[in-house]
Amino acid sequence: MIRERHLFGPGPSNPYPEATRALAEPLLGHLDPEFLRIMDETCDMLRTVWGTDNARTLPLSATGSAGMEAAFVNTVHPGDVVVVAVNGLFGQRMTDVAARCGAEVVAVEHDWGQPVDVDRVLSAHPSPAIIAAVHAETSTGVRSDIAALGAGKGDALLVTDAVTSIGGIELRADDWGVDIGYAGTQKCLGVAPGLAPFTINDRAFERRVETPRSWYLDLGMLGGYVGEAGVKGGQRTYHHTAPTAMVASLHGGLTRILEEGLEAVWTRHQAAGDALQAGLQEMGLELFAAEGSRLPELTTVNVPDGVDSAAVRKQLLDRHGIEIGAGAGAYAASVWRIGLMGRNARPDAVLLVLAALRDVLGRA
Description:
By secondary structure, this protein is of the alpha/beta class. 37% of the residues lie in helices and 15% in strands.
C-alpha cells in the first residue's frame, strides 16, 4: 500500500500543490514563447523573495550545490583571499569549493551550534576579495547576521548561502549588502529539488572571472538576454536547454508564496518553529542551536542520553510515516534535525511531530 510520508527533515519539504500540479502539465519546449513568459515571471518573483532588484536573478539549472559552485567559480581569481565563516557543514563546503577555484582561503572556525561572530570574520584579513557565510546553516539550525557582515565588508564581495532561509525567514539581499546569493528550491520554497535560485549584482558581475573553469556555470554566457537567464533587457542568447518542468513548478510555488504574502509566510514559519521548540522543551528535550539564533524552519535537538538516534528515526518513519533528519558531521548520531518548511510550517504539522515523538520516546 502506498502511503504519504511526512517529511520533517532538512531535505525536501512537502511541495505546495501548485508546484506539484505544474509538474503534471504538458511539457513546453525550452524556446516556446509560453515557457519564456513563465521564465520571465519566475525571475521577477525570485527578485521579490531575494529582496533584490538585480537584473541577473535566475533559477540555475541544477541544485543548490551548483549555486555554491557558480558563486565561486565566477568570482574567484587565482590567489584571491576568500574569508569563509565556518559554523557548520555548509561553511566547510564553501572552503572546499573556493580552494578548488584557486583561492587563498581563510577559514574562520566557530563551534557548531553557534552563529557567526561578525567581528572575528571581518577582522580575519585586512583586504579579502570575498567574504562568504551561510545565512541559515542547515547542519546546525542556526541563523547568522548577514546584514552586519554586509555593513562591514568594505570592498569585498559578500557571498551568501540562503538555501534554508529563502522563503522561510527574512531575507533582504540588497538592503544587507549581499553581492552574490544562492539557494535551493526544496526547502522553504516547497518545490522539488533541482534548481538553484541565484542572484548576482552588477558590482560582482563586473569583477567576474573572464573564463571560469566551468562552461556550464559561466555567468558571462548569460550576456544580456532576458527570461531564460533572468536578465532584464537586451537580446536572448542560447546557453543550454532549460529544465522546463522544474521552472514551471518553481513558478507555481513562488506564485503560492506571493499570493499568501512573503512577510505572512515568514510569520507562519516563525510561529510553527516557536511552537515546535516550546513543545520539545516541554517534553524535556534539549535544543542544540544557541538560544537567540535558532531557525524556526529547522530545529536541532540533542538526542537524549541512552537513546538510539537511528532507531527512533526508523520508528517514526515506520510507525507514523514521519521522516526527521540525523545530525551532520560529528553530530550525526547525537542531534536530530526537524524541518517545518513550506506547507509543513503550520500548527497541525507541529502537533503531529510532537505526538509521534512522545509515542516513540514513551513520554507523556
